[in-house]
Amino acid sequence: MTEPSAPVASLQPLAIGDLHASLTDPLLDAMNFLNEVVARFPDALSFAPGRPAEGTFEVEDLPRYLRSYTDYLEGNLGWSPERVRTQLFQYGRTNGVIHDLIARTLANDERIHVSPESVVVTTGCQEAMLITLRALFARPDDTLLVSSPCYVGVTGAARLLDIAVEPVPEGAHGPDPDEVLAAVRRTREAGRRPRALYVVPDFANPSGASMTVEARGRLLAVAAQEDLLILEDDPYGFFVRAGSARPTLKALDRQRRVLHLGSFAKTALPGARVGYVVADQEVIDPAGRRSLLADELSKIKSMTTVNTSAVSQAVIGGLLVESGCRLREANAASIAHYRTNLSTVLEELARHFPAERRRALGVRWNEPAGGFFLVVDVPFVADGKALERSARHFGVLWTPMADFFLDGGGEHQLRLSCSALSREEIVEGVGRLARFIEAQVATADA
């Protein structure tokens, strides 16, 4: 006869204090709130997400890209059908299988000339950030310098890895090299080691700021002088509104100080979740053996995602093959679309807020030379409560800027993203935004 089992005590709720401290970071709550607001007001016109436009996406393109890639493997590389099948259906090389096509594309589009072996193909650029930070930041005093305001993906990754972050004030043209130098010295004076600087040199998220070519050269000089690595993130460089494209930091790099982070989310297919990092720096062990940093990153990647989906890589690979590994040319229509969208936002802001009205209300904005984002300064606190009122009563969404600052600031600023809307939606959306701003100012004055 079976003995009755003893009652099992229920697991008590887990104490939040026993979980990682990042889970109580206000930034995570702020991002969750933004997602909730978007979901709660699906009919609102949204200037919040930095997602690409879907106008050129066609479902039938996916099998065609896949076939283009397999044809490339069989026809250009001479692979057998059996080898192609294994490539697509099995676990693959940890550092990726389209690294050669990516290296060729970087040479054509950006004049970045690196060996394919220095390219690590990742599951989105977020993984590229995570494994790069994990590899480079080995000591408790290692510190990451970032522009402030800064993209939350990298500051969030640093938080998860318990990496100290030091803000560098951003000006109208991105981080000033003199400010970077000051942050380096400030960090050292505090007994910490400035290990690397994260920077988006072209049309940064969230500010839309871009570094001049002269400032890029000075930044590389500061990095060499201070033994600083640079993590260059370049998702928006193609999308120039005014002027011509500027060389990436990696293209100007002569000392291998720059690790170049990239993604196909904005220039190809965000759903594929394929990114990469160029890590051509040499690593030497105590026995004098040398390797590429890319090979060391492979060890970390093998313990996170094992390898990036071979099917996703094949789809991106087929797109690259079809474009002749010239993705900038293949993005001509997208470049024109985003140029029109950003210009339309600026034109509509100027129409609703002519100079005299702008001064009277205390409203102003920057005029980025490209990309997806711009920032509007307003004379009221642009926080979650204001965002909810904007969504509920005026049908328009935006992003509070304060969440992007590490050292305070941005309380009276909001970010607009123009990428995912049509021209007609932008015209209507800016009109709604103007009515919200005027109502908010009137409420504050009442």
Explained architecture:
The chain is built from 16 helices and 16 strands. The strands form four sheets. An eight-stranded mixed beta sheet has the order 2-9-8-7-6-3-4-5, sandwiched between helices. It has helices spanning 26-40, 61-76, 81-89, 99-110, 124-136, 152-160, 177-189, 213-226, 249-252, 293-301, 310-322, 327-330, 332-352, 355-361, 384-394, 423-445; strands at residues 45-46, 119-123, 142-148, 164-171, 174-175, 193-199, 229-233, 258-263, 274-278, 282-284, 290-292, 364-365, 373-377, 396-397, 399-400, 413-417. Helix 1 packs parallel to helix 15 (384-394) and helix 15 (384-394) packs across helix 16 (423-445). It is globular and about 70 Å long. Strand 12 (364-365) and strand 13 (373-377) form a beta hairpin. It has 446 residues and is an alpha/beta fold.
Q: What's the total count of β strands? A: 16
**Distinct helical segment count:** 16
Into which percentage range does the β-strand content fall?
Answer: 15-25%
Q: Give a short account of the largest sheet.
A: 8 strands, mixed
Radius of gyration: 24 Å
- Distance from first to last alpha carbon: 80 Å
Question: Structural class of the secondary structure composition?
Answer: alpha/beta
What is the percent of helical residues?
40-55%
- Overall 3D shape: globular
What's the average pLDDT? 94
- Subunit organisation of the chains: single chain
* Widest β-sheet, arrangement of strands: 2-9-8-7-6-3-4-5
Which residue ranges are poorly predicted, with pLDDT under 50 across at least 5 consecutive positions? none
